[in-house]
Design a protein that fits this description.
About 30% of the residues lie in helices and about 20% in strands. It folds into 2 domains: about 150 residues, no CATH class; about 200 residues, Pseudouridine synthase. By secondary structure, the chain is an alpha+beta fold. It contains 11 helices and 16 strands. The strands form 3 sheets. Strands 5, 6, 7, 8, 9, 10, 13, 14, 15 and 16 form a 10-stranded mixed beta sheet that branches. The chain is elongated. A hairpin with a 6-residue loop joins strand 15 and strand 16.
Length: about 400
């Protein structure tokens, strides 16, 4: 597995290590310890790499019967980009025999999969492979274990989720997702031309495919709404609302990503926090993408726009683009955002739920200003607040301060 997956509690690869006594875990992606799996090629064993390349053969009893040697099955773990590098770069696997799983039902839960039909979590793939190498009984026991892992993960988050499908088929899954898509209202388009499109993303909508209960992600909804493939340019947290920009061609996306790193690009956010310090002007606090990763410079400018009791409405202007930057910076200066269940304070979240009926993260990407990548003009795209956020500011007497 990729070293960045090692600290993720939702990574499913290590579950195989715990469940299968003859398994070993190898970590790749470390510069100081490059991985070499040449030692796996023993004369008395057959090495198979589970990887859906064009030359991969379906794993089957017949394929196993072609060679009586016991099998060493190598399963790359991680997101698609990480896993796809394994058979292509690691010595000992480059020329190894490649196999793929035969066509079967979709993922039972749809967790940590690519947004493609047939995508599986790593442990689901291991279970199905063991069903062929060992027996269906072994597969069933592993799948029960996987179900318990997923259910307990959601339970730890205070959520309850049902499987995507009980006895799924590719056809039924497609119909189910199409019905889900049709039920969703169209996203508000803030700007569109032949090069890019900007929408007002509601709170609770994921930008990309993630866990199954995320529903149809923004990238897919925008694609289907405008009948054109779109390319993500930047991200908004699922709980954050506001301006979300997509390119209509890959080269436009690359140019926009470069532009967004320019200091002349402005991203203006609105946030309601516990705290109201008029001297809070800038936070310079380095952030790591994940635990154990290298910290990188992170800068956010702030301006207090208005006050209500112990709370303040702030303008936030991120000068760098780190993961959860505004939320983490406000936590760093003891100004937790209302409704932030990860970096905030439960006390304040509960107050706003009971007193104002406010059940979302109080963070909104209100305005973006940048130079158009092809038309050589300055764009200013503004996303109005949704009724929930606008209603909160009205009750706080801060609606006119934005």
């Amino acid at each position: 597995m990729h070293h960045r997956e090692c600290n993720k509690t939702t990574a499913t690869g290590p579950l195989g290590l715990a469940a299968l006594p003859n398994s070993e875990l190898y970590v790749h992606g470390l510069r100081d310890a490059p991985l070499d799996l040449s030692h796996l090629h023993e004369e008395q064993r057959r090495v198979l790499v589970l990887f859906p390349s064009e030359d991969a053969r379906p794993l089957s009893k017949e394929l196993i019967a072609e060679d009586s040697k016991p099998v060493t099955l190598v399963v790359p773990d991680g997101n698609w980009r990480q896993a796809s590098r394994v058979p292509r770069r690691i010595p000992g696997l480059v020329d190894a025999e490649r196999v793929t799983l035969p066509l079967g039902p979709p993922s039972r839960w749809g967790v940590r999969t690519e947004p493609r039909l047939g995508g599986l979590a790593t442990f689901e793939a291991i279970a199905r492979a063991m069903g062929i190498l060992e027996s269906k009984e072994v597969q069933a026991q592993l799948e029960v274990l996987f179900d318990r892992l997923v259910e307990s993960t959601f339970a730890a988050r205070g959520e309850k989720v049902l499987p995507l499908v009980d006895s799924p088929s590719a056809e039924n899954l497609s119909v189910s997702r199409q019905g889900e898509l049709e039920a969703e209202p169209p996203l508000e388009i803030l700007y569109q031309d032949e090069y890019l499109v900007a929408v007002n993303k509601p709170s609770g909508l994921a930008c990309h495919r993630g866990w199954a209960h995320d529903g149809i992600p923004a990238v897919q909804r925008v694609r289907d709404q405008i009948a054109c493939h779109v390319f993500p340019v930047h991200r908004l947290d699922r709980a954050t609302s506001g301006v979300l920009v997509f390119a209509l061609r890959s080269e436009i996306a690359r140019d926009l990503q470069t532009i967004f790193k320019n200091e002349h690009t402005v991203k203006r956010y609105l946030a309601v926090c516990r705290g109201q310090d008029p001297d809070l002007k800038r936070v310079e606090h380095a952030l790591a993408k994940e635990k154990g990763a290298e910290k990188r410079e992170a800068v956010t400018d702030f301006r207090l726009l208005g006050r209500f009791e112990r709370y303040g409405l702030y303008e936030a202007l991120p000068r760098t683009g780190r993961t959860h930057q505004i939320r983490r910076h406000l936590k760093h200066v003891a100004h937790p955002i209302v409704g932030d269940v990860r970096y905030g304070k439960g006390e304040h979240n509960r107050i706003f739920r009971s007193r104002f009926g406010f059940h979302r993260l109080a963070l909104h990407c209100h305005r973006m200003q940048f130079v158009h990548p092809r038309l050589d003009k300055k764009l200013e795209i503004e996303a109005p607040l949704d009724a929930c956020f606008q209603g909160l500011l009205a009750e706080l007497g801060l609606a006119e301060r934005i």
